[in-house]
């Protein structure tokens, strides 16, 4: 308290000068309509700017909650789209009536990517969901824009995902316009490009065509974006095209992912396993 009194005592002349300046300015504004209008217009401008900055700061601090809410909404939308595609496939005959359990077999669990690799020959992703959330090895993982990979291993709270940017990862895909099916695999060092194989060079492939997951797998729902045709090369000594795709998922900005739970995967894999063993 004594220090405060001493401060005012030591600076009393300066403080008195400031008070007189403020009082003079107030008298000027009150007695002159021009300066009064100028003051209020200027003060309103800066108050509005201050409120805008304050609102932007509040919105920025809420971005995490907003992103989490959007991710939860995407879970519902993904489930709805998967149901609609299974109930009314575009290439199905008019009298096709799918079993309700089959049409509703896909569920989605939202997770956050906490480690993403893109520079290795075999890249992995770690997410913050594990067995406690119902995640198991072999489940597909997608993003808001396309395929991400497949769960390799799990702990109680975390899972490691084999990325589509992995030399051994393949996903059965279909070209939307050409309606051709072939596996997609990463064969380059570029994390934005993957290759589509086994598409006959006697079929027409259009640059810019979308490649989506096909019906021939139990890991991903059909119709999930894999990429778009970047280039098509035709070698005379080969019967298939060399097709490069721009990857649909931007791994450099990957944040939230969706783990695909197929309720009927175990039954489907058990039925198909003898066929796979017979082919070997």
Report mean pLDDT, rounded to a whole number.
78
Taken as a percent bin, the fraction of beta residues is 25-35%
The CATH superfamily of the largest domain turns out to be: Rod shape-determining protein MreC, domain 1
Task: Give the CATH architecture of the largest domain.
Answer: Beta Barrel
| Tally of individual domains | 2
Distance between the termini: 90 Å
- Low-pLDDT stretches: none
| Largest sheet descriptor | 6 strands, antiparallel, barrel
The first-level CATH class of the largest domain is given as Mainly Beta
SSE order, as H and E?
HHHHHEEEEEEEEEEEEH
Number of strands: 12
Instruction: Name the strands of the widest sheet in spatial order.
Output: 1-2-5-4-3-12
Return the structural class: alpha+beta
CATH topology of the largest domain: Thrombin, subunit H
Helix content: 25-40%
Number of helices: 6
Organism: Persicitalea jodogahamensis
Family: Belongs to the MreC family.
Transmembrane segments: 12-29
InterPro entries: Cell/Rod_1 (IPR042177), Cell/Rod_MreC_2 (IPR042175), MreC (IPR007221), MreC_beta-barrel_core (IPR055342)
